Amino acid sequence: MTATPDLATPQLASPDLLRSVFRRHAAGVAVITAHGDGGPVGFTATSLTSVSAEPPLLSFSIGTGSSSWPAVAESDHVGVHILGEHQQDLAATFARSGADRFGAPTAWREGPEGVPVLDDVLAWLVCRVIGRVPAGNHRIVLAEVVHGDPAGPGRPLLYHQGRFNGLRD
What we know:
Layout: H1 15-23, E1 27-28, E2 30-36, E3 39-45, E4 49-52, E5 57-63, H2 69-74, E6 77-82, H3 88-95, E7 108-110, E8 116-118, E9 123-135, E10 138-149, E11 157-160, E12 163-166
Antiparallel strand pairs: 1-11, 2-3, 2-6, 4-5, 5-10, 6-9, 7-8, 9-10, 11-12
């Protein structure tokens, strides 16, 4: 059965319209980390995008009001971690304002370029930041991959309808 879009009563653009539409868009879940002046910082992101294979580039967005933004704004390198479905609690911790994101039970180590690298993720990358593009109250960060490991076990964590979910077959 096909549903025809209702073109007779479209909604005007608004933050609520955008949020409502993107709640219907399933997205992979990543945690972005950086080393700041006060220690490691990080946040949960669903905006991760592959930009180019040659050279290997990616992008993500971050709100300029985020507690992680000052460190990401100054960092030469960031960590990008693809979370597994077993890491819903970790995703929630890095999404929660005011949380002790790097305290127990979060397991991590200092990785290449001094970037915090989380343990037990599906895959991780360390990237060199090459640009920060203004976009409303966010910045789109462009970064070039310099190190990484794609070999973690498990299945990806998804974000859909305001919740973290596992992938179903």
